[in-house]
Model the fold of this input.
Amino acid sequence: MGARFFLGVELMFETVLVVEDDRMIGEAVCAALKDAGVTTQWARSGWEATGILSQERFDLVLLDLGLPGRDGMSVLRGLRADGSDTPVIILTARDGLEDRLAGLDAGADDYVLKPFHMSELLARMRAVLRRRPGAASAAARTLTNGELTLDTETKIVTIERDGEKRQAALSRREYDLLEALLTRPGAILSRAALEERVYSDGELPESNAIEFIIHGLRKKLGASAIGNVRGLGWMVQRPRAS
Ligand code: CA
Done:
């Protein structure tokens, strides 16, 4: 575990992803954060950032907008479409109101105009974390996909549909199966793959056991929550980018 950086009385974070193609700015920000004991990763392009974010969680992301390959706004939209609520602060030289509003609309928590002083950036980071206490731990605990949010600690799933919110408790096997699907949205998981996740070594599931669990899940979540691809397996849809 990395060193802890106390950004306020009770606010602390350990990992920050810096997405910045400008070498001088990237080095300065990473050095300042490292000095403060924060574990940092530095992505120099939009695609690199997207790749890292699909693998790892961070307590906060500092995101440049003008990046080679994939721009920062696309990185941000992709992150939010994947259900992540990791706090994001945009670093931008563009001071147009439209860019700022687009960034906030796309799910950024704040923006800092370049050039900035490190003390200003740290103050904004502090403010974002203060506004979202526990955001990092909650994000690490939940799996979200469209209408569904699964709390991996309480095993309770929240369904938000047509403006209504309801919750359902899952059996252990229902939970294991749904978790397997939600961690790989868009991927078709075969019966064998799901059996492996749901049944431990030595347990021999009946031939239609997975169908039975899926049937129970659909009753709780709605029939459309889990898709069947005939002959191949089951899946949850990848959330659409908004
Ligand atoms: Ca740039």
Observations:
- The chain has nine helices and 13 strands.
